[in-house]
Amino acid sequence: MSNNLLTKNKRLLISAVLLVALFVSVFVVAQYFQNQRSVSTFPTVSFSWSTLQANTTQGGSVSINCTLFNDSNQSIKNAGFGIQLEDINNVSYMANASIWNTIFNQTFTPKTLSIAPQEQKTTVLTITITPVAPIGTYDFALQGGNELLLTVAPKQS
Predict the structure, then answer these.
(1) Is residue 35 very low, low, confident or very high in pLDDT (cuts 50, 70, 90)?
(2) Which residues contact 96 (CB under 8 A, 6 or more apart)?
(3) Same domain flag for 12 and 63
(4) Number of structural domains, the chain?
């Protein structure tokens, strides 16, 4: 019986040591990541769009300038851009991204930019509405937390 008790105590001691080692490891890793977050590794970029409301027709296109400003002290290599169609006439299209290309196409010129610290550069977003796209108000989410309201009217014959 004393042999069983000794084996049980050894198991408890080993379990306690492993548990303490696990807690120490988690604490060390958490401290490491907390220190990494306090030193910003992602520079701040400000986005300024030339307009947030535009008009076009079915089959037409619209171009909007986007000025980016790198207000950090770190260089940004190959900053990419994107927009997302949120809704048309308040009907959500976010879940239907597969049909976006049948409604519109988007291009950025240039597609990517390298921006030095405290530098400002411009890209042009062109949205082309397909001839069969629905008429109405398109709500696009733009980079930088902005929204573009694009009114699409019927194509004039």
Answers:
(1) very low
(2) none
(3) no
(4) 2
